[in-house]
Amino acid sequence: MPVTRGFGGRRRDHALDLPPGQYLTEDFPVLSAGPTPDIDTADWEFFIRTESGDVHTWSWEQLHALPIEDVTRDIHCVTRWSKLGTDWRGVSLDTLFERVETEADFVMAHSYGGYTTNVPLEDLQDGKAWIAFEFDGEDLEPEHGGPARLLIPHLYFWKSAKWIHGLVMTADEEPGFWEQNGYNNYGDPWLEQRYS
């Protein structure tokens, strides 16, 4: 499996309020395991599948017809870089979950291209997560997860799945791609939950 550049980071000390072990970067490193999928927005679809099998879907146009939010957050990568004050536009997961009835406590995020990552449902609610399609005032570039990615900025950035396709509700926590390969199931950067 090809791995793009950026998995090795430089360490620098800063007097900023960064999570432990992180260094500040001004650029936006590209980190991917595998090739970048080519997704036409005419074919793009996002779904939420509940534990009962109910499926809610949104096309690109339907997603953009929902309330759109501007979001400014710091992001932190498990490879030790942090980027402060990043600007995004997207739709809150709170908006998408308004139509969804579920008793599940966990979610498996699925990306175009096959990537998966697990997240507790509570970490997608209460203004904590978005489906983001713009970064820094521009359409989200494919190398950064465009046309749309999951954005969960309070967790390490591998949880913000690129090329998001859907969320599957699960009763139990099941590990996703990186979690099966030794990463922490949760990924809190302030607790340095990098690896299991």
Automatic annotation (TrEMBL):
Domain Oxidoreductase molybdopterin-binding: 34-178
Coiled-coil ranges from the UniProt annotation: none
Gene3D superfamilies (alphabetical): Oxidoreductase, molybdopterin-binding domain
InterPro entries membership: OxRdtase_Mopterin-bd_dom (IPR000572), OxRdtase_Mopterin-bd_sf (IPR036374)
Protein name: DMSO/TMAO reductase YedYZ molybdopterin-dependent catalytic subunit
Organism in which the protein naturally occurs: Actinopolymorpha pittospori
